[in-house]
Structure prediction request, 222 residues.
Amino acid sequence: MPAVFIVAVVVAYLVGAVPFGVLIAKMHGKDLRSIGSGNIGATNVARACGRKWGYICFGLDVVKGLAPVATFPLVTPRSEAAPASAGFFAMWLAVGIAAIIGHIFPLYLRFKGGKGVSTSFGVALGLWPYFTVCGLVALLVWIACVLKWRYISFASICAALTFPVTLALATTIVPAWDFGRTWPLLVVAVAIPVLVIVRHRENITRLRAGTESKIRTKGRDA
Prediction:
């Protein structure tokens, strides 16, 4: 188990560190770090290369969080009849965190990466059913906020804050989600919005000043 866990964490970091946004922009002959916000995420890719490529970048960034987390239980020897322990949840989460850290501090870009929202969503989808359910609720909140206010950063912060609240409610309601085993999930769920807010501190400053960029929608000015 220790050897499998260590390899899984290293692989998750290296996968998470792949800068798909930068690679997509380079395919178009552009340096993403010198365009718009300079972020390597999907929003800036859409700004630099078009909305279609922004969607593609978003999907790839989600997958690089989803794949390592979804794979870990398959390569970890554990009895299916026995419920997962807190220790197993902690290792599972560590793999997901490694992928997120890879996106935020990528080795390939001298540790200067993105905000980690898309990759975090991928990690959430892979932690079935615990984070998956919460991630889907957070996605609905994100969509609602984007449609209402058209600020990607504000929507991301709202979605991140929704995540731990949803998990806490589910843990209270669903008997199988025993807090004695799943407490590592709740600890990380609380840490996620803190990380998202820290990574969006410049956006928060612009939101307060009224200078944050909105996404463009048909028939409306940005």
Summary: The CA atoms of residues 86 and 181 lie 4 Å apart.
